Task: inverse folding
């Protein structure tokens, strides 16, 4: 028996003209041994990486949208041991999921879910799942951060950047971040470790939107000319003649210059190109370069335990107030299509749909 309900989907194609639509989909009434049926209470809308779907050969007529969800367990499979009906949970649907997170009900493998603490709201739970995972992957798994180090977060006011700043500060790391606009600058300067504390989370906010402020000079000034220990970028310019739409991105040479001896560069740039002179400088500094792709956690069963441990720690730090997402107010379900189009076109940051 199948239950019909509406979910949000998109058709792969030209990313500049992607159309999102609500369409009927079928949810199986029966579930597998280790599956959990969840009633969705909130769902995060993040940009869809069509290139990743293409690379992994996950081509479909329609791609399900909205993978970060929080909700209530309705039913569990006969061999499920982690959950029981009425548990409040949060998780990330896999890339190849057939169901959209905006469906009223979704089916999860129990190993992709964690318990949601009671004091955490539906909005917060959906907001931090994927960006919290990315922050842990970048800082703990790839950069091996340690107290006393200096971190540069590019586009610090992004949902991911804010969580990376908070996580690094919690572990005693000195944090610098770039702001792409006066609004981003204000948000970053107002970040505080906890309510009522005057201390800022950031040692410095670098105004890259202001032509008078230079990224390299600012970072070297803050580190006494030694450079930063960790860089997390949000994309880089590979060539001087890159289009104006990329002018807010740092040039790769700037980041190479900024890195300290033994530093770590964590990049989100899938097509990063390094010329022999670039590689030579990185070699002389003994720098490590890592590519941030948090989707790999579910690519191997060997990593499943660590993946769940990260998700559990994310929601625990959210409950404790260590992580606090900085997002706009939640949007109603009927605005989901328009909101997702804006997110995909980078006209808005991540949005959260909360169901009443």
Result:
């Amino acid at each position: 028996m199948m239950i019909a309900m509406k979910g949000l989907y998109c058709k792969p194609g030209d990313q500049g003209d992607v159309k999102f639509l609500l369409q009927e989909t079928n949810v199986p009434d029966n579930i597998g041994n280790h599956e959990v049926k969840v009633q969705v209470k909130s769902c995060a809308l993040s940009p869809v990486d069509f290139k990743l779907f293409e690379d992994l050969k996950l081509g479909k007529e329609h791609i399900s949208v909205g993978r970060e969800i929080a909700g209530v367990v309705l039913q569990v499979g006969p061999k499920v041991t982690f959950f029981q009906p009425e548990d409040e949970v949060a998780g990330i649907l896999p890339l190849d999921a057939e169901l959209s997170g905006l469906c009223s009900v979704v089916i999860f493998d129990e190993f992709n879910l964690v318990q949601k603490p009671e004091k955490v709201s539906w909005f917060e739970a959906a907001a931090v799942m994927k960006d919290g995972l990315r922050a842990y992957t970048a800082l703990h798994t790839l950069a091996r951060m340690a107290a006393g180090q200096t971190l540069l977060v590019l586009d610090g006011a992004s949902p991911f950047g804010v969580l990376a700043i908070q996580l690094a500060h919690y572990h005693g790391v000195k944090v610098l971040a770039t702001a792409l606009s006066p609004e981003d600058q204000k948000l970053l300067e107002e970040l505080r470790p906890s309510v009522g504390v005057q201390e800022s989370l950031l040692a410095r906010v670098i105004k890259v939107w202001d032509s008078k402020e230079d990224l390299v000079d600012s970072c070297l000034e803050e580190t006494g000319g030694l450079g930063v220990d960790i860089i997390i970028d949000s994309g880089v310019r590979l060539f001087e003649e890159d289009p104006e739409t990329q002018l807010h991105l740092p040039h790769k040479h700037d980041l190479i210059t900024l890195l300290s001896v033994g530093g770590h560069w964590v990049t989100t740039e899938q097509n990063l190109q390094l010329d022999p002179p670039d590689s030579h400088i990185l070699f002389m500094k003994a720098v490590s370069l890592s590519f941030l792709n948090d989707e790999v956690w579910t690519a191997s069963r060997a990593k499943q335990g660590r993946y769940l441990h990260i998700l559990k720690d994310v929601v625990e730090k959210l409950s404790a107030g260590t992580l606090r997402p900085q997002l706009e107010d939640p949007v109603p379900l009927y605005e989901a299509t328009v909101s997702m189009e804006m997110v995909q076109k980078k006209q808005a940051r991540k949005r959260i749909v909360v169901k009443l």
Observations:
- DSSP finds nine helices and 15 strands in the chain.
- The CA atoms of residues 63 and 281 lie 42 Å apart.
